[in-house]
Amino acid sequence: MSGGVHVPVFGVLWPLYKLAAVVGAVIVAAMVFTFTASGVAAMWASGGVLLTIWWGGYRVAHQRWDDGERDFYAENRTRH
Fold first, then answer.
1. Which residues contact 3 (CB under 8 A, 6 or more apart)?
2. How are the residues of the chain apportioned to helix, strand and coil, as percentages rounded to the nearest 5?
3. What is the dihedral of CA 44, 47, 49, 53, to 10 degrees?
4. How many CA atoms lie within 13 A of 70 on its CB side?
5. SS3 call for 3
């Protein structure tokens, strides 16, 4: 797994910025829905926050986009 801070989410390690994006989106959705009573506004606001934090964290962490078959083989070739 690449560098950066990771946290366990249901037994799977997630980068911290992804968890922060999901939590931030849920908080924004709850706040917007509370004040506007509009599910559409809450959805758009939370989607914008989620994408901003997720991609911002991705850019700051400098993580690779793909984790393909080549990477899996390289990490697990000694386990045969």
1. 61, 63
2. 70, 10, 20
3. -160
4. 1
5. coil
Q: Where are the beta strands (DSSP E) in the chain?
A: 6-9, 12-15
pLDDT of 2 reads 55
Per-residue model confidence as pLDDT tens digits over 46-69: 999 999 998 988 888 766 655 666
What is the C-alpha separation between 4 and 14, in angstroms, rounded? 10
**Hey, how many other C-beta atoms are within 10 angstroms of the C-beta on 45?**
18
Q: How many CB atoms lie within 10 A of CB 43?
A: 14
Distance CA 30, CA 36 (A): 10
Q: Provide the residue type at 63 as one letter.
A: Q
Report d(CA 50, CA 54) in Å as an integer.
6
Residue 14's DSSP bridge partners are: 7
